[in-house]
């Protein structure tokens, strides 16, 4: 059994570029890898270059007519439909090739785990969790998360848990496996009444025959580290322990941060770092150490995403970074040239304490209302007591 971590990356993934001032700008990936390298996180790590996903790989999740539309979109323009050519999902040259490469990178990371070569693998370019079977959505052309999960199922993996900490509901992955009892999807996100895509209520628990395999924890706007982590620990570990996945897949969107321009949660980089450490511990405890970590959203391109995902890389590699670490001058000198006068952080911390109080039952706090609803919706379906704080 492997014990090392695979990092899947090549600068060609930066070709997934929605253009202009689109929020999902590839500079966030380039700056992340540059920061990780400048801090020595990737020293001695063999970085694997991805190969594009095949049509057969993509068609485990996406319909053939949708693949055809994506291929033809750069020539067909606005007439192609399927959610392409919108402000969220503008058409760009070689769109199919770029999106298939992201999906292929997630499959390659999954293959490293399934083969036994490694226990953990990471693709920070992945996490495009909104794409549906027949249309693009939310900056996502192909759903690499679902494609990688479907690939693992086809290889004989019997139970996979998908845990989404992006500020937006992991709707595309939930939809792909809503009726499949082999896949548990868990999403913590800003409440759907207050943020796109407007799904992810606690009552969405899976279709008949897969009851309890969709878990949703919608959180009130303004929820910070303490409330977010309180909700996480009140729901997620118990459900994962009940499901006992063979692989844990995590979508690690960094847009729950308080500085993210597209949402309204209030986490810090310190809270996100603590969350990644929680994910690592849960993979060890509940999934035999098998952990596939993917990127996701995150639109504070210069101040948040590079730090958060460098912490993610450090956590996956067991090279945890001291939050007080100063950001190297070589990164600062490069970033200042592309950051367009955005003030840059100087250390790997926001100076926050991510400590939280464990949930111990009913209170009037908004986040505890969210916890109560999630536990009551799904815990009985796993044979767990929704009111017992020990579950």
TrEMBL record:
Species name: Saccharopolyspora thermophila
One GO biological process term: acetoin catabolic process
Pfam family, one: Hist_deacetyl
Entries under InterPro entries matching the protein: AcuC (IPR003085), HDACs (IPR000286), His_deacetylse_dom (IPR023801), His_deacetylse_dom_sf (IPR037138), Ureohydrolase_dom_sf (IPR023696)
Alphabetic keyword roster: Acetoin catabolism
Protein's UniProt keywords contain Translocase: no
Molecular function terms from GO: histone deacetylase activity
Record carries keyword Plastid: no
Pathways involved: Ketone degradation; acetoin degradation
Gene that encodes it: acuC
Family: Belongs to the histone deacetylase family.
Residues in coiled coil: none
Protein name per Swiss-Prot or TrEMBL: Acetoin utilization protein AcuC
The Histone deacetylase domain, residue ranges: 22-314
């Amino acid at each position: 059994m492997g014990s090392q971590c695979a990092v899947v990356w090549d600068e060609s993934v930066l070709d997934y570029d929605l253009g202009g001032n689109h929020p999902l700008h590839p500079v966030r990936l380039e700056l992340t890898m540059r920061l990780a390298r400048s801090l020595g996180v990737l020293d001695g790590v063999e970085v694997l270059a991805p190969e594009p996903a095949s049509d057969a790989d993509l068609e485990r999740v996406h319909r053939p007519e949708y693949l055809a539309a994506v291929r033809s979109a750069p020539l067909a323009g606005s007439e192609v439909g399927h959610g392409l050519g919108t402000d969220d999902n503008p058409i760009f040259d070689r769109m199919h090739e770029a999106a298939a490469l992201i999906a292929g990178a997630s499959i390659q990371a999954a293959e490293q785990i399934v083969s036994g070569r490694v226990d953990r693998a990471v693709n920070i370019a992945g996490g495009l969790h909104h794409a549906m079977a027949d249309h693009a959505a939310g900056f996502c052309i192909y759903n690499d998360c679902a494609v990688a999960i479907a690939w693992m199922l086809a290889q004989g993996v019997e139970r996979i848990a998908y845990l989404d900490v992006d500020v937006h509901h992991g709707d595309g992955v939930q939809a792909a496996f809503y009726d499949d009892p082999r896949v548990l999807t868990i999403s913590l996100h800003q409440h759907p009444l207050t943020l796109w895509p407007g799904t992810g209520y606690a009552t969405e628990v899976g279709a008949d025959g897969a009851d309890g395999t969709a878990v949703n924890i919608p959180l009130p706007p303004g929820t910070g580290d303490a409330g977010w982590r309180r909700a996480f620990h009140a729901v997620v570990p118990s459900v994962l322990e009940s499901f006992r996945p063979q692989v844990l897949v995590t979508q690690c969107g960094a847009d729950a941060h308080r500085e993210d321009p597209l949402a309204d949660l209030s986490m810090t980089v310190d809270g996100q770092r603590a969350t990644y450490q929680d994910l690592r511990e849960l993979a060890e405890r509940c999934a035999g150490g098998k952990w596939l970590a993917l990127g996701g959203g995150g639109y504070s391109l210069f101040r948040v995403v590079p730090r958060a995902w460098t912490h993610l890389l450090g956590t996956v590699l067991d090279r945890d970074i001291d939050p007080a670490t100063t950001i190297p001058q070589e990164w600062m000198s490069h970033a200042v040239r592309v950051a367009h006068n955005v003030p840059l952080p100087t250390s790997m911390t926001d100076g926050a304490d991510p400590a939280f109080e464990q949930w111990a039952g009913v209170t009037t706090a908004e986040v505890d209302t969210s916890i109560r609803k999630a536990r009551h919706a799904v815990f009985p379906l796993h044979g767990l007591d929704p009111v017992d704080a020990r579950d």
